[in-house]
Amino acid sequence: MTLIELNRIAFKRLIDHLGYVNAIRFFKQFETGNGDYTQERHQWLDSLSLDEIWADIQKRQS
After folding, report:
1. Cβ–Cβ under 8 Å, residues 15 and 23
2. What is 2-61 written as a DSSP string?
3. Which of 5, 11, 40, 62 is the most exposed place for a label (fewest CB within 10 A)?
4. Is the CB of residue 42 less than 8 Å from the CB of residue 51?
5. pLDDT tens digits for 3-54?
6. What is the 8-class DSSP label of residue 31?
7. Rounded to an integer, what distance in angstroms lies between the CA atom of residue 48 and that of residue 45?
8. HEC letters along 35-47
9. Integer angstrom CA distances of residue 17 from 5, 11, 56
10. How far is the C-alpha of 45 from the C-alpha of 59, rounded, in Å?
11. What gap in Å lies between CA 1 and CA 8, rounded to an integer?
């Protein structure tokens, strides 16, 4: 089976089970977006200590 055949079968199955709108919604969640996440995350993570990150995680879990 080629990748093209696989994609056609998979997309048809999604449409059959989800409908066109929800199949498209499913694929849209995997769009690439823009920017450089690796560079941008340093803007918010470099200013935090591990203790601050851990405290925030614990706060959100409770």
Report:
1. yes
2. -HHHHHHHHHHHHHHHHHHHHHHHHHHTT---SS-HHHHHHHHHTTS-HHHHHHHHHHHH
3. 62
4. no
5. 999 999 999 999 999 999 999 999 888 877 788 888 888 888 888 899 999 9
6. -
7. 5
8. CCHHHHHHHHHCC
9. 18, 10, 40
10. 17
11. 11
Count of CB atoms situated within 10 Å of the CB of 36? 8
- Position 17 scores a pLDDT of 97
Question: How many angstroms separate the CA atoms of 50 and 29, rounded?
Answer: 30
Q: Where are the domains of the chain?
A: 1-31
What is the rounded distance in angstroms from the CA atom of residue 25 to the CA atom of residue 31?
Answer: 11
Dig out the tokens for 52 from the structure.
């601050």
Cβ pair 29, 18 in contact under 8 A: no
